[in-house]
Amino acid sequence: MSSKWAATAATAAAGAGATDGEPPIAKRAKSGRGIDATYATRNPLLRNAEEVRSLVLKYREAALVENADSKFKYVTFNIRPNRTGVRNPSVKCIQELQKYLLFDDEIVVADYGHYTWLLKDIHGYPSFIFAPFYSGQEVGTLHKNLDDFTQEGEVLIAGELQITINDIGEKRYIYNTLSGTYTVPLLRRLTAKNLEKRYRSLKDFLTTLGVRSELIEQYPDKPLFTTIVKEKVLPSDMVKLYSDFCEMTMIDFAEKIKTPKKSRRGGARRKTLRKRRHTKSNNSNNRTARSTKTHRRVSIIV
């Protein structure tokens, strides 16, 4: 990817779905499509919220938020424990998070921004499931969340997607197939041919929807997706969702500084030498003791 294109990608979106100040498509459409909508309108691919027993959260990454004093800080969101100490999400929390999931051909009209995605076989049919993520913590939009929030099935491939714009105003889709939860295990059990077939699955899927193949680009690295999002301020409506509906607490994020390990070569060598000296000394003492004992035994016999 050229530096010019990387710069275009970096400035194209201020967080997922932030075009002209409007909310993302998932929010604009959520009033009639969520799990709490009528049976006739809700997406049948969504799992019943009562069946979702847990909400996987990431704690080694953070979200950038703005406080009342217009100051910014990194925080992590955590579910409050109940009276028994269990940190299970409420049904209402899952319902609200499910409303941000998008499916299949909604990718064509989705706003500019960053998304997690997975291709999942549900009842024998592949379904493309994706959701906008606004921070490094990716609350409710981790690949595991997308899998848990939808009907049971096999995840075929997963990754991240950025929808941006090129120099002539066309939407461009940049994606990777990086997912520690789903892609890494595939590397161990699939042949190279089958793996490559799955890698092409997203591009093929978008092409069938009418997106020109030259507007779809695979990017093999992850920083394009994570580094940019970490610098975006979490929208206030998302803070409200996490705090109110999900009753999460915000904890100041203090990233652990990794200090380089000191070389132990000298210390280990000195320790080895000391051990050798100690062993040599013990052997010498043992020989002396055996010699003394032998002399005494001989003396006693005489």
Number of helices in the DSSP assignment = 10
SS-derived structural category: alpha+beta
Poorly predicted segments: 1-23, 31-40, 266-273, 291-302
Shape: globular
Major sheet: 6 strands, mixed
The total beta strand count reads: 9
> Strand order, biggest sheet?
3-5-4-6-7-8
Count of the separate structural domains: 2
- Could you tell me the strand content as a percent range? 15-25%
Report the end-to-end length measured between terminal Cα atoms. 95 Å
- Give the radius of gyration: 29 Å
Element string (H = helix, E = strand): HHEEHEEEHEEHHHEHHEH
Classify the helix fraction into a percent range. 25-40%
Q: What average pLDDT do the residues reach? A: 74
Word description of this protein:
With 302 residues, the protein is of the alpha+beta class. The chain folds into 2 domains: 3-252, no CATH class; 264-302. The chain is built from 10 helices and 9 strands. The protein has helices at residues 3-11, 25-28, 91-98, 143-148, 183-189, 192-199, 201-208, 223-230, 236-245, 265-301, and strands at 63-66, 72-79, 102-103, 113-122, 125-132, 154-165, 171-176, 216-218, 248-252. Strands 3-5-4-6-7-8 form a 6-stranded mixed β-sheet. The protein has a 3-stranded antiparallel β-sheet with strand order 1-2-9, with helices on one face. A hairpin with a 2-residue loop joins strand 4 (113-122) and strand 5. The longest helix has 37 residues, at 265-301. The chain is globular, with a radius of gyration of 29 Å. The chain starts with a helix and ends with a helix. Residues 1-23, 31-40, 266-273 and 291-302 have low confidence and may be disordered.
